[in-house]
Specification:
The N and C termini lie far apart (about 75 Å). The longest helix is centred in the N-terminal third of the chain and has 30 residues, at about 70-100. This protein has 2 domains: about 40-275 and about 320-360, no CATH class; about 385-565 and about 590-630 and about 645-660, SGNH hydrolase (Rossmann fold, 3-Layer(aba) Sandwich). The protein has about 650 residues and is of the alpha/beta class. The radius of gyration is 28 Å and the shape is elongated. About 60% of the residues lie in helices and about 5% in strands.
Length: about 650
């Protein structure tokens, strides 16, 4: 079946579509298999460069022919961008309206508005990082790049017009523009990934690449195809394993892509870049970019294993994209009607206002087909990380403002008797239940803990040496506080376990992917990597910590981590129509397989230091067949591994006799 090609304002170059095909395939496989295609995110950078190249060529060519019109330019942009986007946004909204919980639909409504109004990049800047696990739960996350392109299109025609009218050489002018845009993020304190100013230089570099095709230099540009491919593969290898934005790595990708564009501009029928396979994906690349992430994100939201259904996702995405291209884009891009463009503009505007209404109405909780899950939904509200009493207490003890991530207390009176809870985010979610229980017995509770920086003796962690040092400072503040508080009766030490050992998450949530702190190493890693062993070092830190607290006058408890679910507990709640899976338990054998070594080694260390009491919550969550997210009608988790408020209270009751009568 021959796929039709729309009429272009420029001479059609199939090799450029082939490069688009490479870009979309990189993005597609990155989102499906992030471990294996960790370099795939650069597909977006390739799109940026191609867009800048073609838009600059279109504008400048028309200016030279004295036929450029702003009105025509934006009409063409609307008929190119809006039709597929409208269809995808409507589809995303329908699925969300039918199956999302109110809080989820409210979030989707907010993103419908920011996507339709093309400021999604700024919206996400205040919400989630691109590599964060929470990003997978936002079906319109990928519209950030589309927003940047549309913002660029608002400014770039005027920029090129001014350059043309001033009679400045295009190459020199764009060199200056690109340089200014490249240095701007370093001069201003702005987000380096999402902010438009941090990304405009890539699109402008595409324009600079077009300017190079007009220069005398281009006559002598004669790279062989194998050299271009080799450079491109080298760039992929260079960015492999990256999990954050890097200007240097992005620059290498942009430079390599620019050389590739220069090559395919001269060799429009190159056998590789102009192959039917790549050209096909290049032609459907825009709708495929829009569709694939919506399908992937909804699978994450509904608790499906994305990699298990990867082939089905690819087939469905390609099918929807082809139909969108063949029966929507083709006809929309042929239309020269300004009325048609105006109608598209109004429709997209209306979708944005509808999204805002849904957000303001808190996700339409009165939908008649919704199942009442309010009892469970309350458990997914996270408690604040700090309170004034805790901050005042620790500040008084230290004599300065502490930098710890979690600081809470039930009193700031140093004359009172305290139970101190230390650790990482698990200490934070354990605090409410323990604080409530001890308060009834006349004891105050202090929480002082760090996020992904467990306060083991000598156990500062971080992905870089500077982050290790930051972690060490936070740990020092914890130990200074412990040693200076005059009346400590008990101390509870609570952190994660298997994740620190293996460096990977568990189940469909983390899917075996590295979680944000899995790259965290102890300081020994930065001293001698050849002898590094994460597992050995972790258990060494636990033993040193047991040894340290065994000499203290107060009673110390070590809380073993609760079972990791590997799925989002909100999927325990029944979604409308009952056709989506409801998952509320994991097998006991899976839990032991994941946590068995951690549990065994902790107990072995505990035998050496019998004054330290080990708190084991296994039988709170598990029987001999399963471990449960819901017990006695109460949701125990706020996410795949942290306690909810109810879970925290049930945990405190579970250990009540041991903690109060020990």
């Amino acid at each position: 079946m021959k796929i039709p090609i729309v009429t272009h304002s420029l001479k059609y170059n199939p090799a450029l579509d082939g490069l688009r095909g490479i870009a979309i395939l990189l993005v597609l496989f990155f989102h499906l298999f992030p471990n294996y295609f960790s370099f795939g995110y650069i597909g977006v950078d390739i799109f940026f460069l191609l867009s800048g190249f073609l838009i600059t060529q279109i504008i400048y060519t028309k200016l030279e022919k004295n036929s450029f019109s702003f009105l025509e330019f934006y009409r063409n942009r609307i008929r190119r961008i809006f039709p597929a986007l409208i269809i995808v946004l409507i589809f995303t909204l329908i699925i969300g309206y039918l199956f999302l919980f109110p809080s989820e639909l409210a979030d989707l409504g907010k993103h419908l508005k920011s996507s339709a109004f093309f400021y999604q990049n700024f919206q996400l800047m205040h919400e989630v990082g691109y590599w964060d696990k929470a990003a997978e739960l936002k079906p319109l996350l990928h519209c950030w790049s589309l927003s940047i392109e549309e913002q660029f299109y608002l400014l770039w025609p005027l920029t090129i017009l001014l350059i043309y009218k001033s009679r400045v050489d295009l190459l020199i002018a764009l060199l200056i523009v690109v340089f200014l845009l490249m240095v701007s993020p370093f001069l201003f304190n702005i987000d380096t990934f999402y902010h438009s100013v941090s990304r405009f230089w890539e699109l402008a570099f595409g324009g600079l690449t077009y300017a190079l095709t007009r220069s005398s230099f281009y006559k002598y540009f004669n790279l062989r195809s194998w050299v271009v491919v080799l450079l491109f593969v080298a760039a992929l290898i260079y960015v492999y394993g990256n999990s954050s934005y890097s200007f240097l790595k992005t620059f290498v990708v942009v430079l390599t892509t620019a050389l590739t564009i220069l090559y395919v501009t001269k060799n429009s029928h190159d056998k590789f870049f102009a192959s039917k396979f790549l050209v096909f994906f290049g032609l459907i690349s825009y709708p495929l970019y829009l569709w694939h992430y919506v399908f992937i994100s909804y699978q994450h939201i509904f608790g499906f294993n994305v990699q298990k259904y990867a082939v089905a996702t690819i087939v469905l995405s390609i099918l929807f994209s082809f139909l969108t291209y063949r029966y929507i884009e083709i006809y929309a891009r042929r239309s020269k009607s300004y009325l048609f463009a105006t109608i598209l503009f109004v429709i997209l505007l209306s979708i944005g206002f509808l999204g805002n209404y849904i957000y303001k109405e808190r996700g339409l909780p009165s939908r008649s087909f919704l199942i009442d899950n309010r009892k469970f939904q309350k458990q997914f509200i996270r408690t604040p990380a700090k309170n004034a009493l805790g901050f005042n207490l620790v500040s008084k003890v230290l004599g300065y403002r502490p930098s710890n991530d979690y600081i809470k207390a039930t009193s700031d009176d140093l004359h009172r008797e305290y139970v101190v809870i230390v650790g990482d985010s698990h200490a934070h979610t354990s605090y409410p239940g323990f604080a409530q229980m001890f308060k009834k017995r006349g004891l105050e509770t202090l929480l002082i803990a760090n996020s992904s920086c467990p306060p083991y003796v000598g156990g500062a962690m971080g992905s870089t040496l500077n982050k290790v040092r930051e972690c060490q400072k936070k740990i020092n503040d914890i130990y200074k506080t412990i040693n200076k508080i005059p009346h400590i009766k008990k101390l509870i030490f609570a952190t994660r376990g298997p994740t620190y050992i293996y460096g990977i998450g568990y189940g469909v949530v983390d899917g075996g992917n590295e979680v944000p702190y899995s790259g965290s190493k102890f300081i020994e890693y930065f001293v001698d990597r050849k002898l590094w062993n994460q597992k050995r070092q972790f258990f060494n830190k636990i033993e040193r910590t047991f040894q340290y607290f065994s000499s203290k006058k107060f009673k110390t408890y070590y809380l073993i981590e609760d079972p990791e679910l590997g799925f989002l507990p909100k999927n325990c709640m029944e979604r409308p129509f009952g056709i989506l899976p409801s998952q509320c338990r994991i097998s006991y054998s899976d839990y032991i397989h994941r946590a068995g070594e951690y549990r065994e080694r902790v107990y072995q260390i505990g035998k050496k230091y019998p004054v330290i009491t080990i708190l084991d919550p296994k039988w709170l969550y598990c029987d001999h067949e399963y471990c449960y997210a819901v017990k006695d009608g109460k949701m125990l988790y706020v996410d795949d591994d942290h306690h909810s408020i109810d879970g925290s209270i049930m945990q405190a009751k579970f250990f009540k006799d041991k903690l109060l009568h020990d």
